[in-house]
TrEMBL record:
Gene3D superfamilies: Ureidoglycolate hydrolase
Protein name: Ureidoglycolate lyase
Family matches, as InterPro entries: RmlC_Cupin_sf (IPR011051), UAH_cupin (IPR047233), Ureidogly_lyase (IPR007247), Ureidoglycolate_lyase_dom_sf (IPR024060)
Source organism phylogeny: Bacteria, Pseudomonadati, Pseudomonadota, Gammaproteobacteria, Lysobacterales
Catalytic reactions of this protein: (S)-ureidoglycolate = urea + glyoxylate
Domain of life from the UniProt record: Bacteria
Length: 176
């Protein structure tokens, strides 16, 4: 494979609620709309972290586990997909990082975010994203998405050969 042009390599951005807002929710305690004690004060509830949207077309929520093989970096991106009938959330059941690639349009430059410290994501219904990209080790993810009638996965091949960088790349500084 010929060496990718530097401009084809996507920078890994820190995953923050603000930066990801156009694409979905970041699932982490800081995203809670309310935090309050429950169970006689023996636990804290980080309430309402993400909007689960599964009702379109007589749909219902599914809870599954993906056991994902780690991907090798650098990595070419070949496709993106979207789920027109429902949201889709991935929550790592370990604290290994994973990469989230999203785009407003399959034929414009995607954005790549690095999830750290157990952060999860909830793609809004219709958000273009790359299939799960686990890193470092076989990792389990809790997946909350939509079951029911209808075709809920539209996949598009990328015309441009965007690349994810090697594991040692620096993160972009957080957006100002
Ligand atoms: N195919 C499947 O359920 N997984 C994808 O939707 C994904 O985003 O990883
Ligand atoms: Ni998906």
């Amino acid at each position: 494979m010929s060496n990718p042009r530097p401009d084809d390599v996507l920078a890994l951005e820190p995953l923050t609620a603000a930066a990801f807002a156009a694409f979905g929710d970041v699932i982490e305690p800081a995203s809670a709309r309310q935090v309050y004690a429950v169970n006689d004060g023996t636990a804290q509830r980080f309430h309402d972290l993400a909007r689960v949207d599964t009702g379109t077309g007589d749909g219902h929520p599914l809870i599954s586990i993906f056991r994902a093989e780690p991907r090798t970096l650098p990595m070419p991106l070949r496709c993106v997909e979207r789920h027109p009938l429902g949201s889709q959330a991935f929550v790592p059941l370990s604290r290994t990082p994973f990469i989230v690639v999203v785009t407003a349009d399959p034929h414009t430059r995607p954005r790549a975010f690095l999830s750290q410290n157990g952060q999860g994501v909830n793609y809004h219904r219709g958000t273009w994203h790359h299939p799960l990209i686990a890193l470092e080790q076989v990792s389990d993810f809790l997946v909350i998405d939509r079951g029911g009638p209808g075709d809920n996965c539209e996949e598009v091949a990328l015309r441009h050969r965007w690349m994810l960088p090697g594991a040692g790349e620096l993160l972009l500084p957080p957006a100002a």
